[in-house]
Amino acid sequence: MYSYYLLYNNYFEDERTHTGHFGHYLLFNPWDEDVEANVTIYYQDKEPESFSLPAYAGVTNESNFRSWGVIKPGRRFASRIQSKIPLICQHTGGWNNLMNNHAPLKEVRPDPRETVISYTAITRLSNDWYHPDCIVIDMPDKVWLRESEWIILLNPGVEKARANIEMIFSKDQKNVYEAEIAPMTFKFIQMDDITKKNVHYGVHVRSDKLIAAQWYRTINWYTKDELMAHWSVPMVPAPLD
After folding, report:
1. Is the peptide bond before 239 cis (omega within 30 degrees of 0)?
2. CATH homologous superfamily of domain 2-120?
């Protein structure tokens, strides 16, 4: 069985402000056989849920959070996709002011901002993860934007996992934050609260159980609530090839 992990998923709708965050899964099946992909949804605070999606032969298969009938708006979640044959799995999600209605002449606010993330799935678990591009920017007296970051750690196993998040500022300056991830849940940890700000650093995560790890960053103005940009990338698992 082949397994794929997509850790950053956010689904919400606000009819009052016409904003929302919507996601799509793309499952590319390059083979000659139709398969069912088994999807397990992991939460921070409750038991996982499972369902299946079709992956028809020779094409990319698209589905969105709304169509699943499992996820309710207002939820972050992580997922595992399993298939008996290899697939190429990707998540594309947009933060928008149009509620995914892009018809001509659609009435929107005068300053709509559309920003999208897209990343391919993590293909294996590891006890050892790296991320090179880390920085929390928070100095309103010098720059007009603010950058925040999160690390996402998924424990799909049946035992509690312990992880050390090492923040490396230089060869001689390192900070460590310890996290526990309950069985079959994920942690969404804001780095703003635990790291030194306004300086680049790298992150090395070591855990006592096999986990998956992903990074998430946002950019905002200091003077507006709107999200300017955001992106998410899988962290790099060891062993490093």
Report:
1. yes
2. TM1070-like (2.60.290.11)
Residue 74 region by backbone torsions, left for phi larger than 0, else alpha for psi between -120 and 50, else beta: left
Residues contacting 82, CB < 8 A, separation 6+: 1, 2, 3, 4, 37, 38, 40
pTM here is: 0.91
Q: Whose structure tokens read 């088994």?
A: 38
Per-residue model confidence as pLDDT tens digits over 116-132: 899 999 999 999 999 99
pLDDT digits (tens, 9 = 90+) for 55-97: 999 999 999 888 898 888 888 999 999 999 999 999 998 776 5
Cα–Cα separations (whole angstroms), residue 102 to 16, 20, 62: 17, 13, 18
Just give the CATH number of 126-237: 2.60.290.11
Please tell me the least confidently modeled range out of 103-107, 178-182, 214-218. Answer: 103-107
Q: Which residue has the higher pLDDT, 226 or 217?
A: 217
Q: In the chain, where are the structural domains located?
A: 2-120, 126-237
Cα–Cα distance between 208 and 156 in angstroms, integer? 13
